[in-house]
Amino acid sequence: MKKTILAMALVGLFGSPIASQSWAASSLAASASSAMAGLPGDMAPAQHHSAEYRAAVSHEWTVQLLENINKLPEMAAQQARARQLGFELEAASQAVYNPELGLSYVNGPEDTYGIELSQTIDWGDKSGNARSQALLTQQIAQLEMKLERSRLLGDSLSALIEQRLRNKELAFARQQLEYAGTQLEIARQRVAAGDISQAELELMSMELAGNSADYAMAEQAALAADIQVMSLLGAESQSFSDFLPLISIDGFAAVDMQLPALELVYKQVQLAKSQAAVSRSDNSIDPTISLSAERDGDDNKFGIGVSVPLQVRNSYRDVSAAADEAVTVAEQGYLSTERLLKQQHKQFQMSVPRLQERYGDWQQLAFSAGSQAASSLGQQWQLGDISTSDYLQSRRQLSANYLVGLQLETAIYQSWIDWLAVSGQLETFILKLASQAQTQAQTQSGPLAE
Length: 450
Fold this sequence. Notes:
TolC family protein; 12 helices; OMP_efflux; signal; 4 strands; rod-shaped; alpha+beta
């Protein structure tokens, strides 16, 4: 009996008490399937195509999502930063020292005219070190853009999933409210017929009041979710479809240099080393070679000279030591980030499969026992087989179980999104979905689709 009552939670849509029993039974699979679309393996209803195929080709919404993300100010700033660093790289590729031209004139018994051309030699390879630093800075900016887009995608997907959850809860609360109103009218008829007591009618009235309050709270939660989507994507509504069949820990099994988040901190270590090299080259001894020609009266004179700066008052050793310590700080930061990512990855590997397993258990119960429960509970109360208090308690259990199922689905999404967003892999996944959607659209519009 408890199993039957528990499974009824997945419907919660009873319409009129007698005429709608068959409708409620047929609605179970649709309601549960809508809430639980994308369950892996044999827990989902059989279809002509695999769940992965159906999910992959139905994600046109990803194209719109990427367009919305690219329009955000955060991404515009990142793109401007990338252009800025491109100019800085070009600037760093130029020579450090330009030649210098000097002219002189001395007024005397015999006027003296002179011309001198000098060139400082980049002995410390300032240009090469600056170019290396600019290139690393540009690479870091590209990785930061990738991580920023991945973060924005994670926030947006979380908001869309939350919006979807709240809208489902709102629809469920509305159906429960309408059903409770219908049942209250039936309860009044039964009181008039002497079938139930006035106290039981009051219980039904209290149930309706509780459903009304639940609906009001669900409405406010749905409104807050809509506002969150609008604040992130600049649009009140954004199409979204399930991709639960594609959620897996496969393909994300290692924390190595291929991971954008770890590659970023590794590049930062390289940048610190490059900055240390730049610091040393900036304070290096670069000689200047000069050629001169002078006419003194009727005499022509030619000369060559070399000048070398003397690091007597300042050897710049402390500057180099500080740069070396910055490298040590960057290296320790890399190790710290690597350890943190490994911990987060371990949690990802352990949580997602377990959530999917619990989710599968929940859905299996819905498909195996829900239809039978949907066709019996309301009728049993009307026939007097169960008391009003037991009937109301059962309905509350059913509602709680349905909402728990939605929470499980959301938890799977969130655990998966959190890891892919922080590690920088979410953008690649969404781009893949968008590419599959575009390919499918082109296939359907081609000659074979006709």
